[in-house]
Amino acid sequence: MGKYDFITAELAELKAQGLYNTIRTIGSSVGAWTVVDGKKVLNMCSNNYLGFANDPRLKEAARRAVDEYGVGPAAVRSIAGTMSLHVEFERKLAAFKGAEDAISFQSGFCANLAAIPALVGAGHALFTDELNHASIIDGCRLTKAERVIYPHRDVDALAKALREHRDAPRKLIVTDGVFSMDGDLAPLPGIVEVAEEFDAMVMVDDAHGEGVLGSHGRGIADHFGLQGRVDIEMGTLSKAFGVMGGYLAGKREIVEYLRQRARPFLFSSASTPADVAACLAAVSVLEETDGPVRKLWDNARYFKARMGKLGFDLGSSETPITPVMLGEAATAWEFSRKLFAKDVFVQAIVFPTVPRGKARLRVMVSAVHTKEDLDFAVDAFARVGRELGTI
């Protein structure tokens, strides 16, 4: 047997089960209409919530930063990679979030890997929602803390687990704010209440709430009026902000501790000047206006209403994330291929990203979509849905 035979066998098995991921290639800037595999299509599956990925204000900020600072810092933040841009951005982001301090990372994934192992370890207790994002799961795997997985959004079960571990010297609750596959919200007020009762820290992954929820897109803590009561918020800069990077914002002592102990901060090169400058510009836009956020929600309500009338199962989403539930992976991939043939780009989401039997198309509406764009998408969904007998 050859040493790579197991890889060949597993790839063949993925194809046989309809779980093989067909990766398409973007050939233009990301907007409402995008060139994908050489074809101009309506983009309905990127995380470009506010249309910032091709915003001229962000592009100009990135160009100026490259002229002034070059293309990269060429060092980790803790040695020689912290530029004045990083410091300015973290101050501005903390102020925008209503937090005491903030620290930025190369990605949201890195931010979760940075925070969780630094905050809890051997002898401590870690409480995590069963549907948390893969980056949270991997962050949990990097710590020796006892891991307690509680049922999705079940505050009573969380309280029971906290009671059973009340003697742990450190307790950390980690939850997504917006669950990225279903679009539902964490019951954050209840989580914060039980955390305060049992003296536990609360960490919220707000990757899909940043730029979407709260006043001017300040996120889920703002949405629920819980500023100052959530110990640490994680957010990405690659979704609503349209750029690249991640951050942690919260209590000043926690953020300063992470500057001393977070491994991605200590051992991976700093974010590029262009990325940081573009993120600075994104925060400035949101400080000035909530127009993009309001347009996003208007578009989401319009799209969901039309899809619901057609009879599509849209799950339990409370946000612009719109899962079109299809069940089997083969059906989801076939639906995706037929949509692409009709100039609508929506990738299938199948196991292991979601449980078996819960394959779907996850539609991501954007503020840059017009009503005509959304009508075009709904019409394509209707035609394919009837072809495949899903409506």
Overview features:
3-stranded mixed β-sheet; single chain; globular; Aspartate Aminotransferase, domain 2; 13 strands; 2 domains; alpha/beta; Aspartate Aminotransferase, domain 1; 7-stranded mixed β-sheet; 391 residues
Q: What's the CATH class label of the largest domain?
A: Alpha Beta
Distance between the termini: 47 Å
Architecture per CATH nomenclature, i.e. the level-2 architecture of the largest domain: 3-Layer(aba) Sandwich
Kindly state the mean pLDDT as a whole number?
A: 96
Into which percentage range does the β-strand content fall? 15-25%
Quaternary structure state of the chains depicted? single chain
Q: What is the CATH homology-level superfamily of the largest domain?
A: Type I PLP-dependent aspartate aminotransferase-like (Major domain)
Low-confidence stretches: none
Rg from Cα: 21 Å
Count the beta strands.
13
The string of secondary-structure elements, in order, is HEEHHHEHEHEHEHEHEEHHHHEHEEEH
- The rough form would be described as globular
Tell me roughly what share of residues is in helical segments. Answer: 40-55%
Give the biggest sheet: 7 strands, mixed
Q: How would you portray this structure in words?
A:
The mean pLDDT is 96. A hairpin with a 2-residue loop joins strand 1 and strand 2. A seven-stranded mixed β-sheet has the order 3-9-8-7-6-4-5, sandwiched between helices. Strands 1-2-11 form a three-stranded mixed β-sheet. The protein is built from 15 helices and 13 strands. Helix 2 runs antiparallel to helix 12 (273-288) and helix 7 (155-164) runs parallel beside helix 8 (188-197). Helix content is 44%, strand content 16%. It has 391 residues and is of the alpha/beta class. The chain folds into two domains: 16-45 and 290-388, Aspartate Aminotransferase, domain 1; 56-288, Type I PLP-dependent aspartate aminotransferase-like (Major domain) (Aspartate Aminotransferase, domain 2, 3-Layer(aba) Sandwich), CATH 3.40.640.
